[in-house]
């Protein structure tokens, strides 16, 4: 995966550099991606077993886990990211068609079929890959992904109209990331 390769390719010291998210270093973003894989793994477990398993014990615990993960050594943090991504992928691969239809509840309280877990992960990985500021942008993402992201965020933000601009710039603006749209109001980071 291009994104994971870019993250794993970061040199020692690169993770302490600022990310594009206010107050988060690159290490915070990587720790979040590792934590998110584990959290989505909880939803996969729910779908596989029928046992309600929330993504996180609490939002406070989620924040603490990210802060703690960001303090790990370069090698430990990248190992956590690789391991959590591989574990999630393996668990998703084991789900049956019936289990993919099992309803689970996201951290935002939305009840969705487990089949949405793949989108939830792709969205997290791709948007936060931009935050790492390692040369990936919304222009680097597949057109279908960018279009789906624009539709989702537009709906979540309750916007009825969008400014003129390329799909990549619209996705960046809607998600509260750097963009080149002229006269577009500033939006807080989404995700």
Provide tags for this entry.
191 residues; mainly alpha; two-stranded antiparallel ribbon; 2 strands; 55% helix; 3% strand; globular
In short:
The chain is mostly helical. 55% of the residues lie in helices and 3% in strands. Strands 1-2 form a two-stranded antiparallel sheet.
Provide an overview of this structure:
The protein is mainly alpha-helical and 191 residues long. It contains 8 helices and 2 strands, in the order H-H-H-H-H-E-E-H-H-H. Helix 2 runs antiparallel to helix 6 and helix 7 (143-157) packs parallel to helix 8. The radius of gyration is 17 Å and the shape is globular.
Helix-strand string: HHHHHEEHHH
Fraction of residues in H or I helices: 55-70%
Task: Quote the distance from N terminus to C terminus.
Answer: 21 Å
**Strand order of the biggest β-sheet:** 1-2
Count of alpha and pi helical runs:
8
Fold topology:
Blueprint: H1 2-8, H2 26-49, H3 59-70, H4 74-94, H5 97-100, E1 103-105, E2 111-113, H6 117-131, H7 143-157, H8 167-174
Antiparallel strand pairs: 1-2
Helix pairs in contact: 2-3, 2-4, 2-6, 7-8
